[in-house]
Known about the structure:
Blueprint: E1 2-8, H1 10-25, E2 42-48, E3 52-53, H2 56-60, E4 66-77, E5 82-89, H3 93-105, E6 106-107, E7 121-129, H4 133-138, E8 144-155, E9 160-164
Antiparallel strand pairs: 1-2, 1-8, 3-6, 4-5, 4-8, 5-7, 8-9
Amino acid sequence: MRSIELTFEDATDARIRSDWAALADAGVPSLAGHTGPSNRPHVTLAAGPGLQLSGEVQDILRMLPVRIGFSGALVFPGGPGKYVLARSIMLTQQLLELHRLVHKEAAGALPLTLPDAWTPHVTLARRVPHHLLGKAVDLLDLRLEGMCAHARLWDSGTRTVTPLGNT
């Protein structure tokens, strides 16, 4: 799988990592346990096993930074009896335009990441048992704003991260 991801400036990154730590400290499976260098808070713009980028993507991503606001918690199915907990990101004209332009220049994206189907979010925890969801959401201060300042290409096949745009 390959994905184009937006990452945050330092202060926003630190706030999301503090969410990861608070969840882990409370016994909720969180991304705090994944200590690999590629693991950092991010927003996925496009993803797919055969995702291909044109050279124009680099220019589009020079639109960064993009201010974002978080609008609450999202829960996605994560397997039998398990869930994914994420922070929802408010849709702004600037973010939607960036997303649309990236998809105009990227081929092979999965349908869920395409414009009109995309749910922008930052994952906080995976494989959360249903009985811990309420506890997990209660730990979060959902009032957060931040800045997406960088972009990268993640390739899970080669386990590599390539900076994109104005890194």
